[in-house]
């Protein structure tokens, strides 16, 4: 990656395994760089044009998920494809200097097809596409071919946040899934029986409810219309087999999409809607874009905004533009160079190293927070010098450490 970057920009200095841990500011509150940590200790990276937060979301930080998303998005979801670095570092660094964040709860990218211990298993495609989705009472509750977030939200609205939801199908529907049947049975995810009633009993589903639902669904094919949810019956199959299956499923989280509030130039806003000079955000570290949900039926929205707003943030930083977004009056002065000296201040390593036991993955250490511990969802732990949030976990992924609650 370094070689690729240098072919376009021979001045690029890319640092791996070097997390930023705190934003550096001057007396006016302008962001002048970051304090980072590598194998040799802490150092300050000066930023003459500002800092762009492109740190992603916090889907790999269970404590933040629990505090900042809806209970139904967190209580019984699996994770599709988390990056172990998306632990909310950028959110916390921004909050630590007074940045504004999207209102809680934040939206997430929630999909269907979750399994109890995996992100998503596409070997189940045919079975879940052709079968019906029922709750523990054996009742359908959503059009099965609806957009992902519609199905996921419907699952989460079931009792126990959708913990007891099942795809019901027969042997005519699971082509391509044969090699996984035994594996799923061993894990306790899949049940098989010669009748719907016996299947329901094995899976813990209401037998009468499921039998009635399957019979009703078969009748829709005879009538040519799904009278309950208007499913397109031409794209699915009726129950015509002699072996029946129940496959447990839950919703899926791909990413969080709530973050630091920005204006039209990607300047991060403070709690008074004023831009913080020298601080920009893009991608899932930024907010001010999604409402209650990620619209999965508009593919590429998250990636698209990351690319587009990343470009806008870079343009704004390079050109010294702040405070000219749609929420502001457009009369703010241009951004000037805030930091003097080299881009990376190696000479300051010694002083940063003296920070002693400062947790490099706790960027709020020693800072005043714009949000109270209660708003952040944690329990203030006894600490004379910092705010540590005790939520019952030690280290989460790479990037953020939370002190365990004792």
Automatic annotation (TrEMBL):
Gene3D superfamilies: FAD/NAD(P)-binding domain, Succinate dehydrogenase/fumarate reductase flavoprotein, catalytic domain. The keyword Oxidoreductase applies. The lineage of its organism: Bacteria, Bacillati, Actinomycetota, Coriobacteriia, Eggerthellales. Residues 10-295 form the FAD-dependent oxidoreductase 2 FAD-binding domain. Its cofactor is FAD. It comes from the Bacteria. One of its GO terms (molecular function) is steroid dehydrogenase activity, acting on the CH-CH group of donors. SUPFAM superfamilies: FAD/NAD(P)-binding domain, Succinate dehydrogenase/fumarate reductase flavoprotein, catalytic domain. One of its GO terms (biological process) is steroid metabolic process. This is FAD-binding protein. Keywords: FAD, Flavoprotein, Oxidoreductase. PANTHER family: 3-OXOSTEROID 1-DEHYDROGENASE, FUMARATE REDUCTASE. The keyword Flavoprotein applies.
């Amino acid at each position: 990656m370094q070689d690729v970057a240098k072919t376009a920009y021979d001045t690029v200095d890319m640092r791996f395994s070097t997390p930023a841990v705190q934003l550096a500011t001057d007396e006016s509150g302008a962001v002048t760089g970051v304090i980072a940590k590598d194998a040799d200790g802490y150092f300050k990276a000066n930023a003459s044009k500002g800092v762009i937060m492109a740190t992603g979301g916090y889907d790999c930080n269970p404590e933040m998920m629990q505090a900042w998303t809806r209970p139904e998005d967190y209580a019984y979801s699996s994770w599709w494809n988390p990056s172990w670095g998306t632990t909310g570092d950028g959110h916390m660094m921004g909050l630590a200097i007074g940045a504004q964040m999207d209102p809680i709860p934040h939206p997430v990218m929630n999909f269907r097809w979750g399994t109890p211990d995996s992100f998503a298993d596409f070997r189940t495609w045919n079975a879940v596409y052709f079968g019906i989705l029922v709750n523990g009472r054996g009742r359908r509750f959503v059009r099965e071919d609806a957009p992902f977030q519609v199905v996921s939200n419907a699952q989460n609205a079931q009792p126990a946040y959708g913990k007891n939801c099942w795809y019901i199908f027969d042997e005519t529907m699971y082509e391509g899934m044969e090699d996984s049947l035994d594996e799923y049975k061993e894990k306790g995810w899949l049940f098989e029986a010669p009748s719907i009633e016996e299947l329901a009993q094995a899976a813990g589903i209401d037998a009468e409810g499921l039998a009635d639902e399957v019979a009703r669904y078969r009748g829709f094919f005879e009538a040519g219309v799904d009278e309950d949810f208007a499913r397109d019956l031409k794209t699915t199959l009726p129950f015509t087999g002699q072996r029946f299956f129940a496959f447990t499923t839950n919703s899926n989280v791909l990413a969080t999409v709530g973050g630091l509030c920005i204006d039209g130039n990607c300047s991060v806003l403070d709690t008074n809607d004023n831009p913080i000079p020298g601080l920009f955000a893009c991608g899932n570290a930024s907010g001010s874009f999604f409402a209650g949900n990620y619209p999965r039926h508009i593919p590429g929205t998250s990636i698209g905004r990351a690319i587009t707003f990343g470009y806008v943030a870079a343009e704004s930083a390079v050109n010294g533009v702040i405070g000219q977004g749609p929420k502001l009056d457009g009369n703010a002065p241009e951004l000037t160079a805030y930091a003097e000296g080299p881009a990376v201040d190696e000479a300051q390593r010694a002083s940063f190293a003296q920070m002693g036991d400062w947790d490099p993955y706790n960027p709020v250490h020693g800072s005043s927070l714009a949000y109270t511990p209660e708003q952040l969802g944690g329990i203030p732990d006894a600490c004379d010098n910092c705010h540590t949030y005790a939520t019952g976990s030690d280290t989460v992924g790479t990037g953020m450490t939370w002190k365990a609650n004792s």
